[in-house]
Specification:
Growth Hormone, Chain: A; 8 helices
């Protein structure tokens, strides 16, 4: 592999938008898998056992959303919708729905909190089409490397997100700013797919320059 080839993958606007979107969507996932049960116990007064059972609801909604997002995207393609629209529409709608997480800051009801979280995770699931998009755009000769970079962005998010949320909660003494932090990732991911990614199409690498 030439460094010039790697540079093309790391400087292509479409791929950078997809990588950024993956980073942000993964941040939502890691909030749910690391801090959500703690949030229910510390901020919402549930017992550990109650929080364990309550956490299943958003997880199931995320699973359902993930399946629905793929079905809708493929259905749009079969109906003749452009690849860009078929992939982006579920992602954008899902990310808008995931913004429901911020509503938890405006209610004291445990039922509403779980409802908003379930809706938000359902939306996150719909938006989780990153691998489908990557398979559509990655250079055929570098699908593995493109996927590795894609995973790297997601893994970095998985490392950074729980740590930052911990600092936010420790410094502020509440989860309000932490939920705002997670909500911001939904906004950034949405803007990334709308304003940065552009048309979704297969990336064709430029041939490496030969020494003159």
């Amino acid at each position: 592999m030439r460094w010039e080839t790697l540079r093309q993958l790391l400087t292509n606007r479409m791929l950078l938008g997809i990588y950024l979107g993956q980073y942000c969507i993964t941040a939502l996932t890691y909030f749910y898998t690391t801090w959500f049960p703690i949030y229910l116990v510390q901020a919402r007064g549930l017992s550990i056992m109650q929080a364990g059972f309550a956490s299943a609801g958003p997880a199931l909604c995320g699973w359902a959303g993930g399946i629905l997002g793929g079905i809708v995207s493929d259905m749009l393609l079969k109906r003749g919708t452009s690849l860009t629209r078929a992939r982006k529409l579920p992602i954008v709608i899902g990310l808008v729905i995931s913004g429901a997480i911020l509503l938890c800051n405006f209610t004291d009801s445990q039922v509403l909190v779980l409802t908003f979280m379930s809706i938000a995770f359902f939306g996150k699931g719909i938006a989780s089409l990153g691998w489908a998009v990557l398979s559509d755009v990655a250079p055929r000769e570098l699908t593995g490397l493109s996927g590795s970079i894609f995973n790297t962005f997601g893994n970095v998010s998985g490392i950074v997100t729980p740590v930052i949320i911990g600092y936010i909660v420790s410094a502020s003494g509440s989860f309000d700013l932490a939920l705002l932090f997670v909500f911001t990732h939904s906004v950034v991911a949405l803007l990334s797919f709308v304003a940065i990614v552009g048309p979704i199409k297969r990336l064709v690498l430029k041939p490496a320059a030969t020494p003159g």
